[in-house]
TrEMBL record, chain A:
This is Succinate dehydrogenase flavoprotein subunit. The keyword RNA-binding does not apply. Pathway: Carbohydrate metabolism; tricarboxylic acid cycle; fumarate from succinate (bacterial route): step 1/1. It comes from Frankia torreyi. GO terms for molecular function: electron transfer activity; flavin adenine dinucleotide binding; steroid dehydrogenase activity, acting on the CH-CH group of donors; succinate dehydrogenase (quinone) activity.
Automatic annotation (TrEMBL), chain B:
InterPro entries: 2Fe-2S_ferredoxin-like_sf (IPR036010), 2Fe-2S_ferredoxin-type (IPR001041), 4Fe4S_Fe-S-bd (IPR017896), 4Fe4S_Fe_S_CS (IPR017900), Beta-grasp_dom_sf (IPR012675), Helical_ferredxn (IPR009051), SDH/FRD_Iron-Sulfur (IPR050573), Succ_DH/fum_Rdtase_Fe-S (IPR004489). Belongs to the succinate dehydrogenase/fumarate reductase iron-sulfur protein family. Keywords: 2Fe-2S, 3Fe-4S, 4Fe-4S, Iron, Iron-sulfur, Metal-binding, Oxidoreductase, Tricarboxylic acid cycle. It comes from Frankia torreyi. This is Succinate dehydrogenase iron-sulfur subunit.
Length: 584, 253
């Protein structure tokens, strides 16, 4: 075991982690731990843009952006947080430009802006051009630009270090335990501040836009250590994933004029959202697609998908504004989007919920107690700026605004804290035990098979539409898989790059998080944003205008069949906007 | 060699709906210095669907036949740059090429010119060192404006091609000059430099051109176009290198 000591340790090197690192690294001794290389992070897969009311191309202001975010989130958004995000969006975009991000430009040389789902002028009157973008590679450019700046500022990275445990002493952060992929060695990082920026957990589903590596490690290990998780039942399905494969095709395609069509060629979104049509928020569009499919109006021999039609757009526009997604259609489907529509279906995309934080990215141990020295930002966190449904582009915004805030807050806390919190005796004991058990495991169960069954059950039972019966089925499936997980063993007996071992560890996180999602969904007897219960089709503000807080009890173990989940609730912060019916 | 007849539950990719899936042979170069000093070839018979990526087939082997098979992968759709490998003798991203397009037997090796750590995993540090050496970040010497720096669409287009780079190393590890001399910066680092040298907002061109003018720099390029052929993002790598050479000549004259 090796011991390291820093002021700030950041876990994860996607957009939120690197944005935090740029702040913390210039203020105090900072290390960034990532299980990948920074440029492999899934921020790089984001496409369409980052919204900010720059008003470069038409009238706009941050107050409209705040309202859209709250309404888009079906009023489960904490309004103080949304206001901060929309206000700071403008500087967040300008900061990135000054770091060198190559945004698309207007003829005057300003940052160009385009339309995006749910972003409107004057409280819903019409779509507004608010998304700042770089073709359909905005996330790639953000990830590259932040990494370039980290190189410039000599930020210290530990690449291919898997953080597998969070160390807390008397309720305060003491550090993390990491596994070095190259050597199999355990490293303990003692830190005054720990920032989690580990992303989401889309791999609980089968059809997903998420990377293989998005297994919810940060949420999972915090949860095992007693940190609650907020609003986990709200998982976003992006309407336009490539059929069966789930690969993301940006909403920017519809922002540029793309249209969704059913088997009759009908632009069906006109019936569901008469004002903004194809640019309605993602939860509404995803439900509309499945409603069409269920009504027999899906496309293809099995009527199981719909079309994203770009054929009416000039090829020059597709080449300039949507080069990557049109290439995906060619590479993976053999379809030429100039001439033919692209078969799509909703794809599991984004966790609105996560580790609860304050607006300064401080992690909460309950509804209002801050965990000293612990921070979270990005998809792993729940501020909550996304409520029940995130608007497109607001994730790239979230990582920049709250990544920055996390980095500053973590560095300031470290600066004001004279001593490190003592490490527990045997700080690596949990990780040693967990890995030892998997290495010595009976091996009568295969991790890949369990994962595939979990994903299948989650797709069938806990995706866009849910009922009490399907959720109970998912819960019993998960319970059975958790028991089988105890018999998983790894065949690779080596220490070097034992990725089989890490995949088994990641499966433990997926099982735990799938259960939290389903338990929260089962208790929420209403339909709101990304959580749609067919047995409770209406929003219920009397009983459910509140955040779900899930707490774990039971033995400290991965995917433990003995663990229990207790639900509590937290009020939504309402400042200016009283909940209204959500129509577009 | 392992022969597998039917696809178990853990198989990746879409469920087979039509006729029974056909199979392909993956011939993978295996190496684990912890257990054997020499590399060896292993063949695997893998069922596949027409829409399966090569990465799906490799993961099928890992999940169903031999869990110790080591490779890097993340996004699985060609944007993160993790899974560059040598496929039938040319560098590809395993997630950006379909099994059905690769013939009945597919040969898979680690990318060449970087030390192999285990199976398809190589040591990427020398590659990232070269990247870091060319000052791959915006350098400015003017006052920071309140709003954005202005840039015309034409100026923005000037370096668009090289902004697409995902640092997968497919170009650098396809370069015969790099194979023979690991000190050569390699195409990727030159692409990274190009992205800033031709950015109208940047003032660091001279510093970077000095670096690229050194012994390990741009003059080692022999214009074999391997890099351009290898780039999964379609970047005109050789053209970018030529533009850097020309900039260097122009400034020297």
């Amino acid at each position: 075991m090796q011991l390291h000591r820093y002021d700030v340790v950041i876990v994860g090197a996607g957009g939120a982690g690197m944005r935090a690192a740029l702040e913390a690294g210039q203020r105090c001794r900072t290390a960034v731990l990532t299980k990948l290389y920074p440029t492999r992070s899934h921020t790089g897969a984001a496409q369409g843009g980052m919204c900010a009311a720059l008003a470069n191309v038409e009238e706009d202001n941050w107050e409209w952006h705040t309202f859209d975010t709250i309404k888009g989130g079906d009023y489960l958004v904490d309004q103080d947080a949304a206001e901060i995000m929309a206000k700071e969006a403008i500087d967040a975009v300008l900061d990135l430009e000054k770091m060198g991000l190559p945004f698309n430009r207007t003829p005057e040389g300003r940052i160009d802006q385009r339309r995006f789902g749910g972003h409107t002028r004057d409280h819903g009157k019409a779509p507004v051009r608010r998304s700042c973008y770089a073709a359909d590679r905005t996330g790639h450019m953000i990830l590259q630009t932040l990494y370039q700046q980290c190189v410039r500022h000599d930020i210290e990275f530990y690449n291919e270090f898997y953080v597998l445990d969070l160390l807390l002493q008397d309720g305060a952060a003491a550090g993390v335990v990491a596994y070095e992929l190259k050597t199999g060695e355990i490293h303990v990082f003692q830190a005054k501040s720990v920032v989690f920026a580990t992303g989401g957990f889309g791999k609980v589903f089968k059809v997903t836009s998420n990377a293989h590596t998005l297994t919810g490690d940060g949420m999972g290990l915090a949860f095992r250590r007693g940190i609650p998780l907020e609003d986990m039942e709200f998982f976003q399905f992006h309407p336009t994933g490539i059929w069966k494969m789930g690969i993301l095709l940006t909403e920017g395609a519809r922002g540029e004029g793309g249209i969704l069509r059913n088997r009759d060629g009908e632009r069906f979104m006109e019936r569901y959202a008469p004002t903004i049509k194809d640019l309605a928020p993602r939860d509404m569009v995803a439900r509309a697609i499945y409603t069409e499919i269920r009504a027999g109006r899906g496309c293809g021999p099995d009527a199981d998908h719909v079309y994203l039609d770009l054929t009416h757009l000039p090829p020059e526009q597709l080449d300039a504004k949507l080069p990557d997604i049109t290439e995906f259609a060619r590479t993976y489907l053999g379809i030429e989007p100039y001439d033919d529509p692209i078969p799509i279906q909703p794809t599991a995309h984004y966790a609105m919920g996560g580790i609860p934080t304050t607006i300064d990215a401080q992690v909460l141990a309950d509804n209002d107690t801050v965990v000293p020295g612990l921070y979270a930002a990005g998809e792993v966190a729940c501020v909550s700026v996304h409520g029940a449904n995130r608007l497109g582009t607001n994730s790239l915004l979230d990582i920049n605004v709250f990544g920055r805030r996390a980095g500053i807050a973590a560095a300031e806390y470290a600066g004001a804290t004279p001593h490190h919190v003592d490490l527990p005796t045997n700080p690596a004991s949990f990780v040693d035990d967990m890995l030892g058990r998997l290495r010595a495991g009976a091996g009568t169960e295969n991790a890949a098979a369990i994962r595939a069954e979990l994903q299948e059950s989650m797709d069938v039972n806990a995706s866009v539409y849910r009922t009490e019966a399907t959720l109970k089925q998912a819960l019993s499936d998960i319970a059975a898989l958790k028991i089988r997980y105890q018999q998983v063993g790894v065949s690779d007996r080596g220490r070097r790059y034992n990725t089989e071992l890490l995949e088994a560890v990641e499966l433990g996180f997926l099982l735990d998080l799938a259960e939290v999602l389903v338990v929260g969904a089962l208790a929420r007897n209403e339909s709101r944003g990304g959580h749609s219960r067919e047995d409770y089709p209406n929003r219920d503000d009397v009983n459910f205008l509140r955040h779900t807080m899930a707490y774990r009890s039971g033995p400290l173990a991965a995917a433990s069949p003995e663990a229990d989940i207790r639900l509590d609730y937290k009020p939504v912060v309402v400042t200016r906007y009283e909940p209204m019916e959500r129509k577009y | 060699m392992t022969v597998v007849d039917s696809r178990p539950a853990a198989a990746p990719g879409p469920a087979a709906t039509g006729p029974a899936p056909v199979t392909v042979t993956l011939k993978i170069r295996r190496f684990d210095p912890e257990f054997a000093a020499e590399a060896r070839w292993e063949s695997y018979q893998v069922p596949f669907d027409p829409s399966d990526r090569l990465l799906d087939a490799i993961m099928w082997v890992k999940w169903n036949v031999d869990g110790s098979l080591a490779l890097r992968r993340s996004c699985a759709h060609g944007v993160c740059g993790s899974d560059a490998m040598r496929v039938n003798g040319v560098n590809r991203l395993a997630c950006k090429v379909l099994v059905k397009d690769l013939g009945p037997e597919i040969t898979i090796e680690p990318i060449k010119g970087l030390p192999v750590e285990k199976d398809l995993i190589v040591d990427m540090e020398p590659f990232f060192d070269a990247f870091r050496a060319v000052k791959p970040y915006l350098i400015t010497d003017d006052h920071e404006p309140t709003r954005e720096r202005l840039q015309s669409p034409e100026d923005r287009a000037r370096f668009d091609d090289t902004t697409k780079c995902i640092m997968c190393a497919a170009c650098t590890t396809s370069c015969p000059v790099f194979w023979n001399d690991g000190d050569y910066f390699g195409p990727q680092a030159i692409v990274a430099a190009h992205r800033f040298i031709f950015d109208s907002r940047d003032a660091g061109a001279d510093e970077r051109l000095e670096i690229l003018n050194e012994r390990e720099g741009v003059w080692r390029c022999r214009t074999t176009f391997n890099c351009t052929d290898a780039c999964p993002r379609g970047i005109q790598v050789t053209k970018a290198i030529q533009e850097v050479k020309r900039a260097l000549l122009f400034r020297r004259l």
